[in-house]
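Field notebook, page 326. I keep forgetting to write these up properly, so this time I am using the form the group agreed on. The chain and the ligand, iron/sulfur cluster, are recorded exactly as supplied. Prediction of the bound pose follows.
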Amino acid sequence: MPLKHWSFAGLMLTSWCNARCASCYLCCGPDRQESMTVEGALGIWRSLQEACPHGCRVHISGGEPFGDWPRLIDLARRAQAAGLGPLEKVETNAFWADDPGVVHDRVAALDGAGMGKLVISTDPYHQAFVPIARVRLLAQVAGEVLGPGRVQVRWRDWLAEGVDTAGMDQPSWQALVARYVARGRDRLCGRAAGGLTGGMQLKGLGEFADQPCRAVLLRSRHVHIDPSGYVMPATCAGLVLGQVGPESVAQIWQRLNADHAARPVLGTLARCGPVGLLAPAQAVGFAPQPGYAGKCHLCWDVRRWLALGGLYGDELGPLALYQAAG
Ligand code: SF4
Ligand code: SF4
C-alpha cells in the first residue's frame, strides 16, 4: 500500500510541561526536559516542506510551547521570514495566561508572525494543574485579537461548565473522570493508558482480533515530530517512523514507503493490529493483562514492555517517553 504524503505536522517544541495530565498520551511533565532549538525546529520545518509536494501545514505543540516564550515567538517569526509556509496553529494549556496585558501582547505577536489559529486545551485533567480562570481569560482575549473563528477551545462544552479540579476529593474526581472518558475523546496511549482506564469497561484479548491499523499508520497525512526529531504517526505516541537529522523527511518517507511491510513492529501493526505483537512479546516473557479498554491500550502495554526491555529500539522510542509513563 503506498504511503500518503505528510501534509500536516506537529512540531513538539518541548516535552516539558507545567502539567502532568492523566490523559497525556505523550507523557509530558515538569520532569521532561527534551526540547528543540529554534535552529533545529527550522531545519525540520524546511525538511517537511521539501518532502511534501503540496506543502506541509505545520503546528507547534509540546509539552507546553509557552514554557519558553522567547523561543516560541522567535521560531514563529523566523519561519515566517524564511517563507516556510503557514504556521497553522499553536497549542497551549493557558498556564501562563494570568495577566490580560501579557496575554494580549503574546497573542498579537503570534498573529503578526503568521499564526493561523490558537488552540487552547481544557478538560478535567488539565484543570488539575491550570486554573480555569486562565483558560477563560486567554479564550476571551484571543477571541478579541484573532476573531472567534481563529480560536479553537478543546473542549468548549467543558469550558462552559468547567471547574478547577486540583484538590478535588477522590470520589468526585473519579465520578468526573468516568463521565468524561465515556465521551471517547482520549487516546489511550502513554499516561492515559494507566491514568484513565481504571474505571473503564475492559475487554478480553479476543475482542481485538482482526483490527488492523493500516489506515492510521499508512494513510494518515498527519505526523508529529518530537524534540529529538523522531517522526511518529499523529495518534500513536512512541512508534518511530524515522528520525530527522540522520535523514531528511523525504528520505524517511521514501524508506518507509519502500519497506513498511517488512518492519517488525509497524508492518505487524498495519496488518494485524496490536494482537499481532502478542506472540513475539509473549515469547520473551510478556504477560498480558486480563482486559484492555481499547486496542490502543493493548498496543501501548505491549509496546512499552518491549521498549523497556530494549527490544525494537529502531521502532519504539523515544525511550524517555516509555519510561515517563510510570
Ligand atoms: S496533555 Fe498537554 S497540558 Fe497536559 S501534560 Fe500533556 S502536554 Fe501538558
Ligand atoms: S493500536 Fe497502536 S498502532 Fe493502532 S492506532 Fe492504536 S496506538 Fe496506533
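OBSERVATIONS:
- The mean pLDDT is 95.
- Residues 132-146 form the longest helix (15 residues).
FOLLOW-UP: compare against the apo run.
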